C-alpha cells in the first residue's frame, strides 16, 4: 500500500514539474534543480505551498529502495490473492444461498399444491356431509312414517251396547247364542263386527276385554267371553225380583285372526234399552312379536 502511494506521489510530482516548465518556461537546469529539491536537500524560492505538501508526503512515504517496492508489491499480490480467495468464498456462499432460495421456492410451490389438494378434499368432504345429512333426513322421515304407520296399526279399540232389536229382552233360548252388540259407540280399527258380534284380532298382542250384564229378576243372566269357541270368563247373576247386574273382564293373548265374542247361556236372559246397560268393550294393550 505504502509503495502504491509512493508511486502515485512521484507521478504527481513529475506532472507538476512538467506543468511548471510549460507554464513558466523553466530551463533544463531549473528542472533538474527542481527535481533535486524534491529530494529535500534545499527549499528553492519558486516552490508554492502545494508543492511543499507533495514534497513532505513524498519524503514521508518514498524513502524506499527497490527491495522495499518489491516487498510492497509482494504484499499487494498477497492481498489481491487473499481478496480473490474471499471473493471465491463469497461467490460460493451466494451460489449456495441461491440454491437454498430455489429449494425454498420449490417447497413453497409444493406446499401451495398440497394446500390446493387439501382445499379440494375439504370441499369434497363438505359435499359428502351435505349428502349424508340429506340421506339422514330422508331416513328419519321414513322411520317416522313407519312408526306412525305402526301406531296406526296399533289403534284398536271398540265399545258397543246391546240394544235389543225387539223389546227389552234377549233370551231365554234353548241353546247358547252369540250376542250381537249392535249399538256401536267406538270401533277404531274396525276389528269388531256389530252384525256378527265377533271381534277378530288384526295383529298378535295382548288385548283387554270387558263386559257388563244387566237383567230382570226371575230369570238368571249368564254371559261368557268365548275365544275361538272356548269359555274364558263368565258374568252371572240371579235375583228373585227387581234388577240384576254382573260384569267381568279379561286380558287375552291373541294371534292374528283369533276371534272373541260373548255368548248367552241357554235358559238365561238379559235386558237392555237405549241406556246401554249391557256393554262389550275391548282394546289392544300392546302388540307381541
Ligand atoms: C242393577 O243396576 C241397575 C241400574 O244401575 C240398578 O237400578 C239396580 O238397582 C242394580 N241391581 C242390583 C241388585 O244391584
Ligand atoms: C253359565 O254358563 C256356562 C256356559 O253355558 C256354564 O258352564 C255355567 O255353569 C253357567 N253358570 C251358572 C251359574 O249357571
From TrEMBL:
Gene3D superfamilies: 2.60.120.40. Residues 1-19 form the signal peptide. GO terms for cellular component: extracellular region. Residues 151-289 form the C1q domain. Residues 73-142 form a coiled coil. Its main location: secreted. PROSITE patterns: C1Q. Keywords: Coiled coil, Secreted, Signal. It comes from the Eukaryota. The keyword Disulfide bond does not apply. It is found in: Secreted. SMART domains: C1Q. This is Complement C1q-like protein 4. It comes from Anabarilius grahami (Kanglang fish). The lineage of its organism: Eukaryota, Metazoa, Chordata, Craniata, Vertebrata.
Amino acid at each position: 500500500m505504502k509503495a502504491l502511494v509512493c508511486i502515485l506521489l512521484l507521478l504527481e510530482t513529475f506532472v507538476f514539474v512538467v506543468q511548471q516548465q510549460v507554464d513558466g518556461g523553466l530551463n533544463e537546469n531549473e528542472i533538474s534543480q527542481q527535481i533535486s529539491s524534491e529530494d529535500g536537500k534545499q527549499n528553492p524560492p519558486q516552490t508554492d505551498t502545494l508543492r511543499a505538501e507533495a514534497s513532505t508526503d513524498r519524503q514521508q512515504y518514498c524513502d524506499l529502495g527497490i527491495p522495499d517496492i518489491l516487498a510492497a508489491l509482494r504484499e499487494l499480490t498477497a492481498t489481491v490473492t487473499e481478496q480473490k480467495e474471499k471473493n471465491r468464498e463469497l461467490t460460493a456462499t451466494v451460489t449456495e444461498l441461491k440454491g437454498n432460495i430455489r429449494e425454498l421456492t420449490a417447497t413453497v410451490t409444493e406446499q401451495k399444491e398440497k394446500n390446493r389438494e387439501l382445499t379440494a378434499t375439504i370441499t369434497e368432504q363438505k359435499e359428502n356431509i351435505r349428502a349424508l345429512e340429506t340421506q339422514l333426513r330422508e331416513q328419519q322421515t321414513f322411520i317416522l312414517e313407519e312408526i306412525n304407520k305402526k301406531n296406526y296399526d296399533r289403534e284398536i279399540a271398540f265399545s258397543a251396547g246391546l240394544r235389543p232389536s225387539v223389546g227389552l229382552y234377549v233370551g231365554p233360548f234353548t241353546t247358547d247364542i252369540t250376542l250381537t252388540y249392535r249399538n256401536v259407540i267406538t270401533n277404531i280399527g274396525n276389528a269388531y263386527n256389530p252384525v256378527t258380534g265377533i271381534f277378530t284380532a288384526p295383529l298378535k298382542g295382548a288385548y283387554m276385554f270387558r263386559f257388563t250384564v244387566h237383567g230382570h229378576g226371575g230369570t238368571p243372566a249368564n254371559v261368557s267371553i268365548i275365544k275361538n269357541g272356548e269359555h274364558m270368563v263368565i258374568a252371572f247373576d240371579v235375583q228373585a225380583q227387581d234388577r240384576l247386574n254382573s260384569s267381568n273382564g279379561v286380558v287375552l293373548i291373541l294371534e292374528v285372526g283369533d276371534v272373541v265374542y260373548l255368548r248367552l247361556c241357554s235358559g238365561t236372559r238379559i235386558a237392555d234399552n237405549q241406556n246401554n246397560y249391557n256393554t262389550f268393550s275391548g282394546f289392544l294393550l300392546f302388540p307381541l312379536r
